[in-house]
Amino acid sequence: MRRILTAATLSLLASPALAAGDPAKGENEFKKCRSCHMIESDDGTAIQKGGKTGPNLYGVIGRPVAGTDFDYGESIKAVGATGLIWTEEELATYVANPAEWLKTKLDDPAAKSKMSFKLAKGGEDVAAYLASVGPAPAAATDASTEAPAATAPANNVAP
User: Fold this and answer.
1) Can you give the pTM of this predicted structure?
2) Taking Cα atoms as reference points, which of 159, 152, 118 lies closest to residue 29?
3) Which domains are delineated in the chain?
4) 151 secondary structure, DSSP code
5) Is the pLDDT of residue 146 over 50?
């Protein structure tokens, strides 16, 4: 039993962990993305001017995949139809090889991506940068400020 626990512990330690991205590095790395993508807030403020070949990336982290009115390709729309939400990890994996990500997510070797660019390194930094320039997350509801729930009378007889 001890050998099994030791082996399991060693295998966990040997597994590469997805490192957290650096938003400052991601801002610099985003220069590669600007030929196709912009970051423009909901009120129209340009955070990063760029192309319109790809969707606006403001608020992409936390948004459903293919979740804007952009003209997405069929494969990414199919992934979006599953309800998948962009996380920093998913986006970093996607930008490394969009076509392979789609093929894996859809279990379809014929899946195609309209995004031909691959960001072999720095995807986690770009994802962290995009998370840092998106809208503030919705405030969590504090249970102590909620109105108390209505309770039935103790004898379970309606008034």
Assistant:
1) 0.74
2) 118
3) 19-136 (1.10.760.10)
4) -
5) no
- b/e burial code for range 24-35 (CB count within 10 A of at least 16 → b): eebbebbeebee
Tokens of 41: 């807030």
Instruction: Give Cα 18 to chain centroid, integer Å.
Output: 14
Which residue would you say has higher pLDDT here, 31 or 151?
31
Cα distances (angstroms) measured from residue 116 to each of 13, 45, 53, 83: 35, 28, 11, 24
Pull the structure tokens for residue 50: 């760029």
Tens-place pLDDT, residues 54-67: 999 999 999 999 99
Residues 6+ apart with CB under 8 A from 22: 125, 128
Crossing angle for the helix pair 88-96 and 98-106, nearest 10 degrees? 120
Q: For residue 97, count other CB atoms closer than 10 A to its CB.
A: 17
Q: Could you give the percent of the chain with pLDDT greater than 70?
A: 74
